[in-house]
Amino acid sequence: MLVNPVINSVTSKISLAPESIEAEVVQNVRMIITTIKGSVPLFRDFGLDSRIIDSPTLMAQAKISTEIIRQVRKYEPRAKITSLKYDVPEIGHLRPILTIAVKGVK
User: Which one has a higher pLDDT value, 72 or 86?
Assistant: First the structure.
């Protein structure tokens, strides 16, 4: 069982049969935060808005945080974001790092 899994936007393998509900939720949240809005046919609202990319870092951080929270609530209601931080490996780059709890799983 995963306890408060940490999710970041670094690519990882996709499992077509996740080992547990927690692993499935983590994979779904990772998919949400790594998808560009408009790139998924029939789900044009899925993912994060790419127009945020050209915003100043602090403004982008606020906008991305809002987008992530809204998208996770909409597309993966089993996940509750308990922490949202950013890794800034270099100026102008933001990597969201989320810690989540999976609702209904002990």
Answer: 72
